[in-house]
Amino acid sequence: MIRGFYTILGSERARMVVFLSWVVLYGVAQGLAMLTLVPITENLLDGDLSAAAKWLWPLAVLVLICAVSAYIQSLKGMTMALYAMRMLHHRLGDHMVTLPLGWFTRERIGDVSQIAVKGTMFVGSTGAHYITPVVVNTVSSVVVVLGICFFDWRIGLLMVAGTLVLMYVGKLSSQFLSKAERRKRAEAVKVNNRVLEYARCQAVLRAFGAADSAHVPLAEALGQQARVGKSMLWRSILGILLNGLTVQVVFSAVLALGAWLAVAGHIEPALLVAVFGLAARFFGPIGELAELGSTLRMSTDEINRITGVLDTDRMPVPDQPKPITEPGAVELSKVAFGYDNGTPVLRDVSLRAQPGTMTALVGPSGSGKSTIFRLIARFYDVDGGSVKVGGTDVRDQETGALMGQLSQVFQDVYLFDDTLWENIKLGRPDATDDEIRAAAETAGVTSIVDRLPDGWQTVVGEGGSALSGGERQRVSIARALLKDAPIVLFDEATSALDPENESHVAESIRRLADRSTVIVIAHKLSTVIAADQIVVLDDEGGVDDIGTHDELLGRGGRYTEFWNQRTAAAGWTLTPSS
């Protein structure tokens, strides 16, 4: 545990070295202070008060050293723990922004949220409150054992052997508990995800009358967590009992050996009584170490989880980035890609979006339209082929340079729990007020401001909960307009927008197309017709055809089927039943 703590401290390791130095001094002084009690007790039992009094001065000095070192190590430990938590938060944050966006699955997000909050807090708490008793008890016990060997080597050797037995039993108890602790942690992550899901899906649950009844997935996760927790509790109790029993057996063996030595005349009774008192004090810290075993294991597991995140491979960054050669151009060449399950999503996809044009992607669900967006933005790296943005392979560009060329308007827009103004300003933090207002006006956001209680300074809530879906997409478009990137990736909303929102979105797409290369996942017929080229994807992740609207209709095939289905659906009306 201490080694793991030292490893993750990084630049703060010097603080730990200073802290441990004071802790070791505290442990040595405590052990020596206990050893001075042997001659004091022996002389008192022999009636030699003057000899006993001589040992009071060394004892007083050692007690003073214990007090001073205990105070200083406490301050150093708390300071180190606070620095460690701050440093871990920074390291985790700095590292996570370098990870591939595809790494952030739902399960990992739940795990990382626990690591960043509970994990770092637990590790910091361990550094502040548990390293000291572990080191002090260990060091003082070693000093005491060595001292007892000086007084009587036979009892000393038996205590050394007993300590080894205790360490072995403690290791067995640790292994007995470790599997249950890992299961408990995994179940805690599942419960965390289910609770978030339950909170976020209240609208759906209430719409189907399921809000008043038990949410089955959450109830099952809580039930499984309770069962795993119960199993871990029993294992923990058994481990504590086993450790306690072993301590008593070893101590009894020491008493038996000492009694035999006294009866046989190999040790003075007064010295034996003093050694017995010291042995009793020795087994106290050993028992405390056994009781701390569960906490130390949990701390080690948390350190391993933190290290696991920090050791995750970053998105590869080129040592010598290449400059862009064709601003606004996007090209996919023979791209093949599949997610972690190994199933191919894209097969031999090739397409090119010329600078300043609009390209519409159409195709059935699961054909890879969103995946193409993710590859252009380098959420993932391709399995085969290449993706070029600005005429340069995305793998040869710095992340900042690549992102600087792209604006992204997602279908599921996420707004931060901040003001409307700040959410738009996120598109370009150094933008002037006039530029922000102009982008908002073009995207139709200013009409939203009038109805909000605090206007531009209205806090929109987590995820933008204070706004409708169409209004959130307008804010996202305003961000894209404000950023004014040469390439825009636009995912049209599949759900029906009200006429006002749809009009603003359509106008915004036209404005974006006037100034940027736009690649849009198109669902509306008007967007498809307006595109300079249409890329038709088939249900196996390949390109079926590429061309303009008229060219594709003239050739027939999959696009004609798509067009006929959409035009037929556009003419549907709801009529009252007879």
Automatic annotation (TrEMBL):
One of its GO terms (cellular component) is plasma membrane. The keyword Cell membrane applies. The chain crosses the membrane at residues 16-35, 55-72, 130-151, 157-177, 237-263. SUPFAM superfamilies: ABC transporter transmembrane region (SSF90123), P-loop containing nucleoside triphosphate hydrolases (SSF52540). Residues 17-298 form the ABC transmembrane type-1 domain. GO terms for molecular function: ABC-type transporter activity; ATP binding; ATP hydrolysis activity; ATPase-coupled lipid transmembrane transporter activity. Its main location: membrane. It is a multi-pass membrane protein. Residues 330-565 form the ABC transporter domain. Gene3D superfamilies: ABC transporter type 1, transmembrane domain (1.20.1560.10), P-loop containing nucleotide triphosphate hydrolases (3.40.50.300). Keywords: ATP-binding, Cell inner membrane, Cell membrane, Membrane, Nucleotide-binding, Translocase, Transmembrane, Transmembrane helix, Transport. It is found in: Cell inner membrane. Belongs to the ABC transporter superfamily. Siderophore-Fe(3+) uptake transporter (SIUT) (TC 3.A.1.21) family. This is Putative ABC transporter permease/ATP-binding protein. It comes from Gordonia namibiensis NBRC 108229. The lineage of its organism: Bacteria, Bacillati, Actinomycetota, Actinomycetes, Mycobacteriales.
